[in-house]
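Incident log, structure service

09:12 report received: a user says their structure output differs between two submissions of the same chain.
09:20 pulled the input from the user's history:
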Amino acid sequence: MDKGNSFSIGQFSEKTGISIRTLHYYDEIGLLVPEKHPSSGHRIYNHDDLLTLQKIISLKFLGYSLDKITNLLKESRFTVDLNETLTLHLDALEKEKERIHQSITAIQRVIKVLQAEEEIDSTILFTLIHSVQTEQIQADWMERHMLTDIKESLSLKTEDDKAKLDQTYIQLSKEVKELYGQPIDDPKVQNMISAYIKSSFEFLGDDLLEKLANANIEEIDIKELEEMTHNPFTEEEQEWLNLAMEYHMKQAEVE
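09:34 re-ran on a clean worker, output below:
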């Protein structure tokens, strides 16, 4: 059927690019209700239905739900009051944009890690993904504690810089799992600590290290930051690692 501006559902679907299934659903919920043939009951779409569908597509593009679109279609004019809902949708889209950006970043970093390692413990991998997920939360923490300079310096680090730090952390995690239980003064343990600290300092750089050293952060605030981050170690492994690092620092002071 195509008599002037009348279309069957198949023709209307082909003309608009909207699937027949979707058109059926829009009809069922009262969003886009075409005329029905008096004898066959087949849907008959016209030019007005085409205009209505264009409005639906436009409002969906702006992020509105179908329920909200149903109400908006009843409006013949829009006033400045629409700005409030548009602003809310804009905020929601900005958050979704940030979430997608974080997901892309996490995927890219995981790809690099797997290419370099070929195989990695799942706990370590999930720790890395969580670290990427919470980067913005950690940045907000720095903002709250007046550490804007440090936050800005870290934001300037390239993805290659972060990838190198990821590799360093993965290497540390693997070696902790392998060496756990050895005496903390064992040369292999201390070489592990030394390599990790050296790579971490290279990532941070002298300027950022100086800013961190001069930062006035209460112990309770540091614990808050630590709670935001996960690590792949058991409590026993973490305690052993802390003791090994303390020993390393004391030895460095003596030297």
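09:41 both user submissions now match this output. Likely a transient worker issue. Closing.
09:42 reviewer note: The mean pLDDT is 85. The first strand starts at residue 35 and ends at 36.
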